[in-house]
């Protein structure tokens, strides 16, 4: 198996899609970047890196894939909180399968917040770093 | 030395504990520096080069044994005179840090609502995090093997 990143990403998207409260709070969710002029709030995730967990003789047990998942919008952190909470409810401690591959656990390792100063308005990002444990199969 | 019926058995034990006690902190710092040097190399390799290469040049590391912040700033400004140096963090004696001296580094790394993230430092850290532990253990275990102090991490251009 060599597509752990894609599996983790597919699982991430499926978990967000399944949360109807979140989907009613945001415009949509995107991998990497939202199309220009997308009105906030929306969710964007970006791949941060991955590392294999191996035992003796290089037998691969699992792969840890890390994504930064953020709710983004031209508003206050307070107004981003509800959607960011829903993202966390959907992802943190989640587990399951995606296309037949098992995701043993999803864990948020740290929260993340950024103020993006623009000339016309400030955009804020609220979310966290999530580790996806994709079991080798 | 022990005597038994078949003869004499001579057991020689090397005890490097006094050496280890004396060099423990220094060996841990050397391991830490070597581990972070690996991450710095990987971060530079993954850095987007753009028009000037200033961002790649601005990747620096601060460890108890090494600080190339000033060198990174000088290289960055030579390549991109418009870049503004960001102050390095204040670290305690056991801290280590990989940073970007360029003011725009944070936004290139983490992205904006108009620009995708390019998290090359984070990726280098995730992929090489085990090296830190490996290098610290190796440096400390060297004392048990009677080895002298290893060299610190390499100078990264």
Mean pLDDT of chain A: 94
User: Helix fraction of chain B?
Assistant: 40-55%
Sequence of secondary-structure elements of chain A: HHEEEHEEE
Overall, the morphology of chain A is: elongated
Question: Can you count the helices of chain A?
Answer: 3
Largest interface: A-B, 19 and 18 residues
What fraction of residues of chain A sit in β-strands?
over 45%
Low-confidence stretches of chain B: none
Number of helices of chain B: 5
SSE map:
The complex is a heterodimer of chains A (137) and B (157).
Chain A: H1 4-17, H2 20-25, E1 29-31, E2 42-55, E3 59-73, H3 77-91, E4 96-98, E5 101-117, E6 122-135
Parallel strand pairs in A: 1-2
Antiparallel strand pairs in A: 2-3, 3-6, 4-5, 5-6
Chain B: E1 2-4, E2 7-9, H1 17-46, H2 54-57, E3 59-63, E4 66-67, H3 69-79, E5 97-100, H4 105-110, H5 120-144
Antiparallel strand pairs in B: 1-2, 3-4, 3-5
Helix pairs in contact in B: 1-5
Folded structure, characterized:
The complex is a heterodimer of chains A (137) and B (157). With 137 residues, chain A is α+β, with helices and mostly antiparallel strands. Chain A is built from three helices and six strands. The longest helix of chain A is centred in the middle third of the chain and has 15 residues, at 77-91. Chain A is elongated, with a radius of gyration of 16 Å. By secondary structure, chain B is mostly helical. In chain B, 48% of the residues lie in helices and 11% in strands. In chain B, the strands form two sheets. Chain B has a three-stranded antiparallel beta sheet. Chain B has a two-stranded antiparallel sheet with strand order 1-2. The A-B interface holds A 32-34, 36, 40, 44, 46-51, 66, 68, 72, 114, 116, 123, 125 and B 107, 110-117, 119, 122-127, 129-130.
């Amino acid at each position: 198996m060599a597509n752990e990143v894609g599996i983790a990403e597919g699982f991430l998207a499926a978990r967000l899609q399944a949360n109807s409260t979140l989907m009613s709070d945001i415009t949509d969710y995107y991998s990497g970047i939202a199309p220009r002029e997308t009105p906030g709030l929306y969710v964007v995730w970006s791949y941060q890196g991955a590392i294999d967990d191996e035992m003796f003789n290089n037998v691969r047990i699992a792969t840890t894939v890390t994504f930064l998942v953020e709710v983004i919008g031209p508003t206050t952190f307070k107004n981003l909180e509800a959607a960011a909470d829903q993202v966390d409810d959907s992802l943190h401690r989640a587990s399951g399968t995606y296309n037949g591959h098992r995701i043993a656990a999803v864990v948020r390792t740290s929260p993340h917040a950024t103020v993006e100063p623009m000339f016309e308005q400030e955009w804020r990002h609220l979310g966290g770093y999530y580790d996806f444990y994709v079991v080798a199969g | 030395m022990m005597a038994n019926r078949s003869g004499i058995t001579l057991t020689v034990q090397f005890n490097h504990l006094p050496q280890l006690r004396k060099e423990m902190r220094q060996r841990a710092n050397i391991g830490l520096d070597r581990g972070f040097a690996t991450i710095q190399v990987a971060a530079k390799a993954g850095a987007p080069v753009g028009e000037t290469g200033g961002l790649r040049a601005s990747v620096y590391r601060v460890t108890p044994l090494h600080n190339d912040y000033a060198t990174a700033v000088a290289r960055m400004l030579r390549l991109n005179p418009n870049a503004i140096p960001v102050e390095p963090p204040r670290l305690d004696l056991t801290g280590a840090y990989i940073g970007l001296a360029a003011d725009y580094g944070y936004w290139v790394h983490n992205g904006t609502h108009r620009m995708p993230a390019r998290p090359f430092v984070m990726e280098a850290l995730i992929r090489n995090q085990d090296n830190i532990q490996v290098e610290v253990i190796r440096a400390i275990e060297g004392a048990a093997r009677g080895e002298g102090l290893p060299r610190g991490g390499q100078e990264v251009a």
